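Entry 14. Ran structure prediction on the chain below.
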Amino acid sequence: MAKSRLDKIRRTLGGETTLEGAIDAMGKEREEQVLEQLAGFADQVVVIVEKLQDVVERFAAERYDELAAAASELDRLESQADDTKEAILDRVSLGGVFPMHRADLARLVGSVDNIANLATGAADRISMRRFSLPAEVNEQLVMMAQVDLEAVKVLRDAVVAMGTDLRLAIKLAGQVDKIESRADDIFASIYRCMFDMDIDYKTFHQLKAIIERLESIADRCSQNAELLRHMALEYIENE
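Output, structure tokens:
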């Protein structure tokens, strides 16, 4: 009986153990490539949230004429990030052996992408119409944008660590949770202020939509951190 293709590969490589090692090595190489792409994608999301902070600061300073251009730039950056996301998902969908499950990697990519979507949505809400807010509320909006950016940066570092040090990834994921708690506190403070403000119905609901989207960015970072933590704990034995 003719040898199967797999048997021929085993014989060429020197036995089953050598074959399994070669397959593991190829799988690890593919995984490292995907994680490297994912780290680059996370960098793009950091840039998007940096631009969102710029939008919030312009709004707080009542530089309304600059908002539309800044929001348009966010849309462009998100489009570029979408291209990167699709490239990663295409790479994962090609198949092959990955030490990490492809479904986990795809879920992580999609969840990180949601951060970019939320940032773009927040900028669109901010630039929708002009309205002034008390200085205290503007200061807290800027603070929330700063906390969002801090959370995204630490999350990015955790994503990078997934390819180098799973224990560090777990530690950084815990830091994201603490940052998210600060965003919750700022959100609650602004929300309380809203009921003391003398503003019309439209302004109330637009402001509500803005702070909900800003707070959702930190929430999504925390959800990503939890996913990273579970992945790291599951695969840490393979380090």
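The chain has seven helices and no strands. Will compare against last week's run tomorrow.
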